[in-house]
Amino acid sequence: MSGEPRELLMARYGADLMEPRVWSQVIESQLQHRSVRAYLPEALPAGTLEILVAAAQSAPSSSNLQLWDVVAVTDQARKQRLSMLADDQAHIRNAPLFLLWVVNFSRAEAVAKAAGRVVEGLEYLEMLVVGLVDVGLAAQNAMVAAESLGLGGVYIGAMRDHVDQVAAEIALPPGAFVAFGMCVGKPDPARPTAVKPRLPQSVVLHHEQFRAQTDFDAIAAYDERLTAFQKSQGMAEIGWSRMVTSRLRGAGYMKGREHLRALLAGLGFKLR
Ligand SMILES: Cc1cc2nc3c(=O)[nH]c(=O)nc-3n(C[C@H](O)[C@H](O)[C@H](O)COP(=O)(O)O)c2cc1C
Question: Which pTM does this prediction carry?
């Protein structure tokens, strides 16, 4: 897929068009990102999984600790069970490949213990942040790689709805949990999706110091733009502010994730 820089920026920012003065093929691909939830049923070409993982492992890693793993699921029955643990999201079972991105302390722990060393460092929240940042960078590298091959995908945060049952489903050792999933497949041309507009850069980009004031006018304009996008896609027309508000209302929207701290403790994470 190719696109003109101005058109792609227009799709992302609408009227807040900026002049694209620098450009590259990677940027062109990134600006075309959209979550894809409808796939052709066919398996991915041989070698695809391995090259996606090579892209993922090429991401930087804090101190090169590589505190992550990825579990590739193609078994239909397992995808079915995982989809049921994620609020019945059909795209999980319909994707030819479902990747589970794992924060994994167990390998580092085993290496340190084999050397007769203490592993107290793994007990700190900081180490969880390290693992989460690393696995996010790796996964997004895989997503960009998949998109560059004409594939599409969507992240599945709902893998944390029942983080203990997901861990059991894929036989994770103590000290490991699935941070999120990722469906990957060839986009179904009969059900295309479009580039979703984002907040204007005037809201998210700061120079030198942070402007703490919320620009409600810019957000109102974005609400309008996102609502128009949602309408064009046949989605619920709720804009952005209402979606944020609904998401923040508390345990009512957490779908099990309100128990994450306790469940992670059960999986061996101390988080002090
Ligand atoms: C960490 C993460 C978790 C997500 N979880 C889900 C999910 O469980 N189900 C889903 O359909 N989309 C999920 N998404 C996709 C987002 O809804 C989507 O990225 C966002 O609405 C922006 O749309 P776009 O990706 O098409 O630009 C997730 C995205 C991220 C980054």
Answer: 0.97
